[in-house]
């Protein structure tokens, strides 16, 4: 049985659309857990009551303070009672029959972790055009996730895997990167498909560079901050990971630093040199410059910081 976990903050009627796309009447769908992160929307109280009355499988966890999606996703997942957990953003749309498809393939291949494609579209008719899945699998999930840069919120895992991995890094505001890393670190077998499954519905006036007003994805500075510290924490928490995986993580962390600083007044030519040398000698570059990089991200002003961090 599947538990779906949705973290919610001021999504309005988009949440209702998401819930309906989950096909709440499906017999394999055990529960839909909505974890509200202290929404300020005056209509939320009325809508939450409507959801509970309309959908018997809905469980709403209401919070009196705002902690961010990483904390709230863990809160929902640890309260879930299904054997399988599915995560997606609370303003996106799931294509028909995907939960059953993921469940059947995971059971068929004896996998504990599954990812499929999350894509942006303008035309709702696009959802119906994607029906055939081709699957890849790996028994080295962490390497697979890093090699394929997997972190989108279209993921199903066993409840046992989530508990073992401890879910998201709660020292980070945005959950995507830490969820993928922690699950894949403890997974025994991952399967993934390029089948379009979760859809980000954009307005016609939006593009890939101009995103919805209530999306964390618009806040690139927050993204860069959280991605860097997710990797930094992971490397420190798991010093025994394979050297190849450590190199991939370091390259991504330093690339994130370069993306963050390159259009700012702080940028220096030496920052570009750090980025270039990390391509060839990632571990040596990391050991030499990590303190400089952590100091830079610690000093960012316009990001949500869950806990204070040391630079050394």
UniProtKB/TrEMBL annotation:
**Origin: domain of life:** Bacteria
Q: Where is the Glycosyltransferase 2-like domain?
A: 3-155
InterPro entries in alphabetical order: Glyco_trans_2-like, Nucleotide-diphossugar_trans
A Pfam family: Glycos_transf_2
Recorded protein name is Glycosyltransferase family 2 protein
Recorded source organism is Acinetobacter towneri
Phylogenetic lineage: Bacteria, Pseudomonadati, Pseudomonadota, Gammaproteobacteria, Moraxellales
């Amino acid at each position: 049985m599947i538990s779906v976990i949705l973290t919610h903050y001021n999504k309005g009627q988009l949440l209702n659309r998401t819930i309906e796309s989950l096909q709440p009447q499906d017999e394999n769908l055990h529960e839909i857990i909505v974890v509200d992160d202290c929404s300020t929307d005056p209509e939320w109280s009325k809508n939450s009551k409507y959801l509970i009355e309309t959908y018997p499988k809905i469980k709403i966890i209401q919070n009196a303070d705002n902690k961010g999606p990483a904390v709230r996703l863990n809160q929902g997942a640890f309260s879930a009672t299904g054997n399988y957990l599915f995560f997606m953003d609370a303003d996106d749309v799931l294509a028909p029959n995907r939960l059953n498809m993921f469940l059947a393939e995971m059971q068929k291949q004896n996998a504990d972790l599954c990812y499929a494609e999350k894509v942006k579209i303008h035309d709702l008719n696009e959802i119906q055009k994607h029906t055939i899945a081709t699957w890849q699998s790996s028994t080295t999930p962490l390497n697979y996730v890093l090699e394929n840069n997997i972190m989108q919120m279209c993921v199903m895992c066993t409840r046992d895997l989530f508990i073992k991995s401890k879910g998201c890094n709660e020292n980070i505001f945005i959950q995507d990167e830490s969820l993928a890393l922690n699950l894949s670190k403890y997974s025994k077998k991952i399967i993934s498909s390029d089948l379009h499954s979760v859809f980000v519905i954009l307005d016609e006036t939006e593009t890939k560079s101009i995103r919805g007003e209530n999306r964390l994805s618009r806040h690139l500075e927050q993204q860069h901050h959280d991605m860097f510290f997710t990797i930094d924490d992971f490397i420190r928490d798991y010093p025994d990971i394979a050297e190849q995986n450590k190199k991939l993580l370091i390259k991504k962390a330093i690339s994130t630093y370069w993306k963050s600083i390159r259009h700012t007044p702080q940028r220096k030519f030496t920052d570009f040199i750090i980025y270039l040398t990390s391509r060839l000698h990632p571990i040596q570059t990391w050991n030499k410059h990590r303190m400089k990089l952590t100091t830079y991200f610690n000093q960012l002003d316009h990001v949500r910081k869950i806990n204070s961090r040391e630079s050394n």
